[in-house]
Automatic annotation (TrEMBL):
A motif ('HIGH' region) lies at residues 43-52. It comes from Altericroceibacterium indicum. GO terms for cellular component: cytosol. L-tyrosine binds at residues 38, 175, 179. Homodimer. HAMAP family: Tyr_tRNA_synth_type1. This is Tyrosine--tRNA ligase. Gene3D superfamilies: HUPs, RNA-binding S4 domain, Tyrosyl-Transfer RNA Synthetase. It is an enzyme of class 6 (ligase). The gene is tyrS. GO terms for molecular function: ATP binding; protein homodimerization activity; RNA binding; tyrosine-tRNA ligase activity. The lineage of its organism: Bacteria, Pseudomonadati, Pseudomonadota, Alphaproteobacteria, Sphingomonadales.
Length: 409
């Protein structure tokens, strides 16, 4: 389909579109008026991770195309947790922890979106504002009558859980009803006409569209993005060392930069389109680079994404640290540091203390494989004592990509 609106053209050429509930209807609406659209984020941790970046960028693209982003913090739904395609129920969080997580997550959106009172300025709302005050019996009478249990059981997110004979609590089963109610509430409060989300949210989005139509006769729309995996099939945002967090408190800027610098060659073009504002012509040039030159494109990717999430200064510092560490053989200012007294520290313990390994046992295995260096020298004894005069630094490395500093004090 050839789109007439700037919004759907932008989303299409950048690779964001997987499913549309009514492509023609949304295209016509977006071509003639400002469309408020929302995505919800449940505050299950103090930070979102890279797996949420497609959705955050989707809101950014919405604003870039002249429309109004609505960021919905799931202070209400977060008390339940989205069961979509999960094997187990999420751990229930206290109201206090949820509030702390919401406050922490808010900060990252200010780098991606322009907030304010203007017609296309972004707003951030918390669904606890309306969900917490719902009364159970009136809610069942007003909203529950519009949901078919038969249909809810047919959605893949529920069906797969039941097919595997894994428990799905009544609490979790209510999540899709509450999310549908969110869309209806946002439509009434803010004129929201569009819900966006990952492909796993299709059923929840369709429920919200039908609820708005049945209760209010309002026409609203849905867009989902493709399931994003890396070229080797791994889930986006997950590494052997855990999630790639967006907040600085959960992951240093250098480690964040390195994640993007080390992506698979095959992912460079896709990630540049999804996660940067570079022009499509420039991206086409970068992804066409071959051999070692593709590393230049990866540095651009790492700089652009880190600048968006952490600021341009953090990106420049991370690149400088990488250059000092890899090219110059020096010690970059942004590497992780452990401080050690003159008594020293055992090599295996140092690997664990700096975060390279999860345990001393894992450290012992890595050292035995010849993967650990002090300075430029490969180490073989996990019990070796690392010592040095106060005020000196020694570079500790695991493989080619993990580097840190043992600092003697």
């Amino acid at each position: 389909m050839t789109y007439t609106s700037d919004l759907l053209r932008l989303l299409d050429e950048r690779g964001y579109i997987h499913q549309l509930t009514d492509a023609e209807g949304l295209d016509k609406l977006a071509a003639k008026q400002i469309v408020p659209g929302y995505i919800g984020f449940d505050p299950t941790a103090p930070s979102l991770h890279v797996g949420s970046m497609v959705q955050i960028m989707l809101l950014r693209r919405l604003q870039q195309a002249g429309h109004k982003p609505i960021v919905v913090m799931g202070g209400g739904t977060g008390k339940i947790g989205d069961p979509s395609f999960k094997d187990d129920a999420r751990k229930l969080l206290t109201t206090e922890v949820i509030a702390e997580n919401v406050a922490s997550i808010r900060k990252v959106f200010e780098r991606f979106l322009t907030f304010g009172d203007g017609p296309t300025d972004a707003i951030m709302v918390d669904n606890a504002d309306w969900l917490d005050s719902l009364e159970y019996i009136p809610f069942l009478r007003e909203v529950g009558q519009h949901f078919s249990i038969n249909r809810m059981l047919s959605f893949d997110s529920v069906k797969q859980r039941l097919d595997r004979e894994q428990s799905l609590s009544f609490l979790e089963f209510n999540y899709m009803i509450l999310q549908a109610y969110d869309f209806r509430e946002l439509s009434q409060r803010y004129g929201c006409r569009l819900q966006m989300g990952g492909s796993d949210q299709w059923g929840n989005i369709v429920n919200g569209i039908e609820l708005s139509r049945r209760m209010d006769g309002t026409e609203v729309f849905g867009v989902t993005t493709p399931l994003l995996t890396t070229a080797d099939g791994a889930k986006m945002g997950k590494t052997l060392n855990g999630a790639v967090w967006l907040n600085e408190e959960q992951l240093p800027a250098y480690d964040f930069w390195q994640y993007w610098r080390n992506v698979d060659d095959r992912d460079v073009g896709k990630f540049l389109r999804l996660f940067t504002d570079l022009s499509l012509d420039e991206i086409a040039h970068l992804e066409a680079l071959e051999g070692n030159a593709i590393n230049d494109a990866k540095v651009v990717l790492a700089n652009e994404v880190t600048a968006l999430v952490r600021g341009r200064e953090a990106a420049q510092q991370a690149e400088k640290t990488a250059a000092a560490t890899f090219a110059g053989g020096g010690l970059g200012d942004d590497l992780p540091v452990i401080e050690v007294t003159s008594e020293g520290i055992r090599l295996g313990a140092a690997c664990t203390a700096i975060g390279f390994t999860a345990s001393n046992g894992e450290a012992k295995r890595k050292i035995g494989e010849g993967a650990v260096k002090l300075g430029d020298d490969v180490q073989s004894d996990p019990g070796a004592l690392i010592t040095g005069p106060a005020g000196t630094d020694v570079k500790l490395s695991l493989g080619k990509k993990k580097h840190g500093i043992v600092r003697f004090i």
